[in-house]
């Protein structure tokens, strides 16, 4: 286990920003941390990066405690914050040189490493450019290069794609793929679920400081979905079919579409319940020749579960 978070809680006065978060990640996993603004993503990442102390709980990075061994943890992680400072009069290579020196790398080591890092984040052509003159996407990539300077095992990236245009996002995603192939364990946050879905092995959804779902994309969809909307196509007596569905405790919001001999309804059951439903219908001699699910896309599911949190 590369990242092991145990009951992490952060309170600001009486307000609980992070509520008993428990989560573990294996080495090499790309983990997407998704939640609306104010959900607690940055708080979590700041604690994992040892910049903020938890009110309760602990987290272990490669076995080192963020509470008791922050110096050891810092060697294991590269952190990219969700903001980029102002670097008046500093060029890209000077910026990396400064951070390299602060991690104790010698001048000779820095001289070898900096061109490699710039290459990795596609900034070789901007080596002698002033940092403040770089585009937002370039600044993000430079910041990523900085977080890699001590070759950390774990990368913690707070909204690295936020504010980027589509092209810059693709570029960022390709770099992350490359980092994954190097064996890094990567934690990346976003308030946009589909953005993470395509590049992450696992997703965690946080809402009001609580982890409300964790798993691969399909599992998340299942955990968050709530009611499905099903449509049954019925061969003959539609009113008989309606009466049948009305009796099922997992069915609600029935709508009969007479013109098409269809019944639409919300269904609270799981897949195996659905199989039983069809079996019961057959026994009751209701001739259902098709049962389909209205597709909800991932973003709708996410919006439904986190609605209201944006106003925080
Ligand atoms: N220093 C602070 N003092 C008080 N409340 C804070 C502080 N930092 C963050 N919060 C609150 O904690 C909650 C979680 O914030 P944050 O972790 O930044 O969320 P996210 O990164 O998911 O947008 C928010 O409601 C935010 O207003
Ligand atoms: Mg944040």
TrEMBL record:
GO molecular function (one): ATP binding
Family annotation (InterPro entries): AAA+_ATPase (IPR003593), ABC_transporter-like_ATP-bd (IPR003439), P-loop_NTPase (IPR027417)
Signal sequence region: none
Family annotation (Gene3D superfamilies): P-loop containing nucleotide triphosphate hydrolases (3.40.50.300)
Domain of life: Bacteria
PROSITE patterns: ABC_TRANSPORTER_2
Keywords, ordered alphabetically: ATP-binding, Nucleotide-binding, Transport
Keyword check for Transport: yes
Keyword Nucleotide-binding among UniProt keywords: yes
Matches recorded under Pfam families: ABC_tran (PF00005)
Domain ABC transporter per the UniProt entry, residue ranges: 3-233
Protein family according to the UniProt entry: Belongs to the ABC transporter superfamily.
Protein name: ABC-2 type transport system ATP-binding protein
């Amino acid at each position: 286990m590369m990242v092991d978070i145990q009951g992490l809680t952060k309170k600001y006065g009486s307000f609980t920003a992070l509520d008993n978060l428990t989560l573990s990640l294996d080495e090499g996993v790309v983990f997407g941390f998704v939640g609306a603004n104010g959900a607690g993503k940055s708080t979590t990442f700041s604690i994992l990066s040892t910049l903020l102390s938890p009110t309760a709980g602990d987290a272990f990075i490669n076995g080192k405690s963020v509470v008791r061994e922050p110096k050891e943890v810092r060697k294991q992680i590269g952190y990219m914050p969700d903001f980029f400072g102002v670097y008046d009069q500093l060029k890209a290579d000077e910026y990396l040189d400064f951070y390299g020196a602060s991690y104790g790398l010698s001048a000779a080591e820095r001289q070898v490493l900096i061109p490699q890092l710039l290459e990795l984040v596609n900034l070789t052509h901007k080596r002698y450019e002033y940092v403040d003159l770089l585009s937002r996407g370039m600044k993000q990539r430079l910041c990523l290069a900085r977080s890699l300077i001590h070759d950390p095992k774990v990368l913690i990236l707070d909204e690295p794609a936020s504010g980027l245009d589509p092209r810059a996002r693709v570029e960022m995603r390709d770099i992350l793929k490359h980092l994954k192939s190097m064996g890094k364990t990567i934690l990346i946050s976003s308030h946009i679920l589909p953005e993470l879905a395509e590049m992450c092995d696992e997703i965690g959804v946080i809402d009001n400081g609580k982890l409300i779902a964790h798993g691969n994309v399909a599992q998340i969809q299942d955990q968050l979905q709530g009611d499905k909307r099903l449509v049954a196509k019925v061969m003959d007596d539609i009113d008989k079919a309606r009466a049948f569905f009305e009796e099922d405790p997992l069915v609600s919001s029935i709508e009969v579409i007479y013109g098409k001999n269809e019944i639409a309804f919300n269904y609270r059951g799981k897949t195996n319940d659905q199989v039983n439903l069809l079996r019961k219908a057959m026994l009751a001699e209701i001739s259902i020749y098709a049962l389909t699910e209205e597709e909800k896309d991932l973003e709708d599911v996410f919006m439904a579960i986190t609605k209201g949190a944006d106003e925080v």
